[in-house]
């Protein structure tokens, strides 16, 4: 990851991940305005509790540093770094605006600068109070991250990591296609994705080194490996399976290209983050997504230990954990929530578009801990495979 420092800006990009839903695919795209699929019943009373809990945890840091006169005891700002676009727009509306209204603390959004993120995640200084990462990066850096108050931890995360991340949402690396491409029924499994005789046409596939996403897991699943036998990843076997399909691949270098490739007919089927297929639906396209063997990738927010405004960002974690707010976020972004209670507030028709919906019982969950141990190998492997 490399980058240059940027001034704080409101995002216009929505790239998705290296090993998760974040990373180097930085290209703008047009999407209809966010609309509410349902109405959230706002919880107003808990805001003061969240702020108080954060301040107690920090032993009165805000008071000692001369916090303002706001009843919350907080003042100043939060520097929030993520990848922008509709995901950030949803955060602005659902989490940031009410937090600022309740506390007077401004949340300033900036586009992730890779160099600063790496420096802070590994324990160094910087401007960020919170940064959007994949869960594997959290596993690799637990010692240099601030712990989340127990009552605001996302229960959907594994117990050994949930104290170090918040704002969890789940992306599905799935296959999707325009429904009329296969009017008699299209592919469902990854083996079907490889079957170009039964389901003819090009396959849209990630084409930049850092955007390996779930490529290896998907190749292994297509080759018949059982979900519980995926790790440690067999890179030679992954490469061999990808080689079989390579003549029928069309590579994209930004996620919005997935939409362009499908709509233009350049690709018949695409593998990519489920949010791209939702964007096509929002644009009026009839899209079929197969959740069979879709690979679930957790995305989270981490707080570096050198966060300049730690008391403020810890107070914000309560807003992110609220199940009704998470339900609205899921409705706007089509990402699965980190608090399972959110499903009580998500209509069934909205749940159908979420990879972690209770009815999607055949999805495959990434092992973020295993991937954390193989981060460098993953990048080196995919870089080499693309270059062959």
Automatic annotation (TrEMBL):
GO BP annotations, alphabetical order: thiamine transport
Primary site of residence = periplasm
Sequence intervals crossing the membrane: none
GO cellular component terms? Answer: outer membrane-bounded periplasmic space
Q: Which Pfam families match?
A: SBP_bac_8 (PF13416)
What SUPFAM superfamilies does its record include?
A: Periplasmic binding protein-like II
- Superkingdom in the source lineage: Bacteria
Q: Which UniProt keywords apply?
A: Periplasm, Signal, Transport
Q: Tell me the InterPro entries matching this sequence.
A: SBP
Question: Cellular location of this protein?
Answer: Periplasm
Task: Write one Gene Ontology MF term.
Answer: thiamine binding
Q: Report the protein name in the record.
A: Extracellular solute-binding protein
């Amino acid at each position: 990851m490399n980058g240059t420092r940027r001034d704080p800006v409101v995002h216009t990009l929505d790239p998705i991940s290296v090993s998760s839903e974040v990373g180097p695919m930085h290209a703008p795209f047009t999407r209809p305005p966010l609309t509410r699929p349902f109405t959230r019943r706002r919880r107003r009373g808990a805001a003061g509790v969240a702020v108080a809990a954060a301040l107690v945890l920090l032993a009165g840091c805000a008071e000692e540093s001369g916090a303002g006169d706001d009843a919350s005891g907080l003042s100043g700002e939060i520097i929030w770094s993520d990848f922008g676009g509709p995901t950030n727009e949803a955060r602005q509306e659902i989490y940031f605006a009410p937090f600022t209204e309740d506390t007077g603390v401004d949340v300033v959004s900036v586009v992730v600068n890779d160099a600063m993120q790496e420096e802070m995640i590994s324990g160094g200084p910087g401007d960020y109070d919170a940064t959007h990462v994949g869960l594997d990066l959290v596993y690799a850096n637990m010692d240099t991250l601030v712990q989340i108050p127990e009552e605001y931890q996302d229960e959907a995360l594994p117990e050994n990591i949930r104290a170090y991340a918040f704002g969890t949402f789940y992306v599905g690396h799935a296959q999707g296609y325009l429904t009329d491409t296969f009017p008699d029924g299209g592919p469902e499994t990854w083996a079907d994705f490889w079957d170009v005789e039964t389901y003819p046409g090009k396959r849209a596939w990630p084409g930049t080194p850092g955007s390996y996403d779930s490529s290896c897991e998907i190749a292994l699943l297509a080759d018949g490996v059982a979900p519980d036998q995926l790790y440690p990843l067999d890179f030679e076997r992954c490469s061999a399976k990808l080689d079989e399909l390579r003549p029928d691949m069309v590579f994209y270098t930004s996620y919005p290209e997935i939409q362009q490739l499908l709509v233009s007919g350049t690709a018949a089927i695409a593998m990519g983050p489920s949010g791209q297929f939702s964007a096509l639906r929002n644009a009026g396209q009839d899209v079929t997504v197969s959740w069979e063997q879709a690979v679930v990738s957790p995305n989270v927010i981490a707080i570096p230990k050198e966060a300049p405004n730690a008391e403020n960002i810890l107070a914000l974690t309560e807003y992110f954990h609220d199940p009704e707010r998470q339900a609205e976020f899921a409705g706007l972004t089509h990402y699965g929530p980190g608090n399972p209670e959110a499903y009580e507030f998500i209509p069934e028709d909205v749940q159908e578009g979420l990879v972690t919906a209770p009815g999607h019982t055949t999805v495959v969950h990434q092992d973020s801990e295993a991937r954390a141990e193989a981060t460098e190998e993953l990048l080196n492997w995919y870089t080499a495979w693309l270059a062959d």
